[in-house]
Specification:
Chain lengths: 110, 119
C-alpha cells in the first residue's frame, strides 16, 4: 500500500518559516491535504488539494506538491502553530482503496 | 455550524464488541460520505473506514476488515461503527469525519470517543 513519510520533528523560531515535507512515490500526481492537531484536540484541515486553504485558515499556511515530495510551509511562525501536522492522500491502487496519512511531524516553536 | 458528536466508547475486554455512534448536524448529512479515523495513544492518525452518502460504497482498512462494520442512517443523521473481536491494538480515540470531494479530504471532525480494549 501507499506510504507517506514525514520528518518526526521540526523546530523553528517565532517569526521564521517552517517547512514540513511529505514524501511518497510520485506524490505529485495525487492531491495532498494537510491537518493540524493540537494536544487533546481533533485534527483541523489547514490545506487541501495541495495548496488551497479552508476559510479561517491564515494565509501563513501554504502548500506545494511536485515529484516525490509535498510540502506544507508555515510563514511567520507563531507560538500557536505548535502542533502535530499530518499529510494525507487517497490511495486508489488496484489492491487497496482508502485514506493514507503521513507519519506526522511535531512542530516545536522555540 | 457543522457538528459531529461521537459516543459509545468505553472499556471492553479483548474479543468483545462495541458500537460507536456519530450524530451529525448543521449540514445535509445524506449528501456526504463519512469516515472513521482512529488514533492510538501517542501515535499518528489511522484511517479505519469510509461509507458513501447512500451506503453504496464502503471501504475498510486491512487492520479492521472482517471485524468492523460501518453503517449510516440518513433519516437519523447518524453514522455508526460496529466493532467486533476487539484487540488491544484497537485501543484508540475514534473520530468521525465528514468527507469532501474531489480530493477527497476530511473537512470536519468530531472530538472523538476513546475505546480501551483491556482485560
Amino acid at each position: 500500500s501507499y506510504v507517506l513519510t514525514q520528518p518526526p520533528s521540526v523546530s523553528v523560531a517565532p517569526g521564521q518559516t517552517a517547512r514540513i515535507t511529505c514524501g511518497g512515490n510520485n506524490i505529485g500526481s495525487k492531491s495532498v491535504h494537510w491537518y493540524q492537531q493540537k494536544p487533546g484536540q481533533a485534527p483541523v484541515l489547514v490545506v487541501y488539494d495541495d495548496s488551497d486553504r479552508p476559510s479561517g485558515i491564515p494565509e501563513r499556511f501554504s502548500g506545494s506538491n511536485s515529484g516525490n515530495t509535498a510540502t506544507l510551509t508555515i510563514s511567520r511562525v507563531e507560538a500557536g502553530d505548535e502542533a502535530d501536522y499530518y499529510c494525507q492522500v487517497w490511495d486508489s491502487s488496484s489492491d487497496h482503496q482508502g485514506y493514507v496519512f503521513g507519519t506526522g511531524t511535531k512542530v516545536t516553536v522555540l | 455550524e457543522v457538528q459531529l458528536v461521537e459516543s459509545g466508547g468505553g472499556l471492553v475486554k479483548p474479543g468483545g464488541s462495541l458500537r460507536l455512534s456519530c450524530a451529525a448536524s448543521g449540514f445535509t448529512f445524506s449528501s456526504y460520505s463519512m469516515n472513521w479515523v482512529r488514533q492510538a495513544p501517542g501515535k499518528g492518525l489511522e484511517w479505519v473506514s469510509s461509507i458513501s452518502s447512500s451506503s453504496s460504497y464502503i471501504y475498510y482498512a486491512d487492520s479492521v476488515k472482517g471485524r468492523f462494520t460501518i453503517s449510516r442512517d440518513n433519516a437519523k443523521n447518524s453514522l455508526y461503527l460496529q466493532m467486533n473481536s476487539l484487540r488491544a491494538e484497537d485501543t484508540a480515540v475514534y473520530y468521525c469525519a465528514r468527507e469532501t470531494e474531489p480530493g477527497p479530504f476530511l473537512d470536519y471532525w468530531g472530538q472523538g470517543t476513546l475505546v480501551t480494549v483491556s482485560s
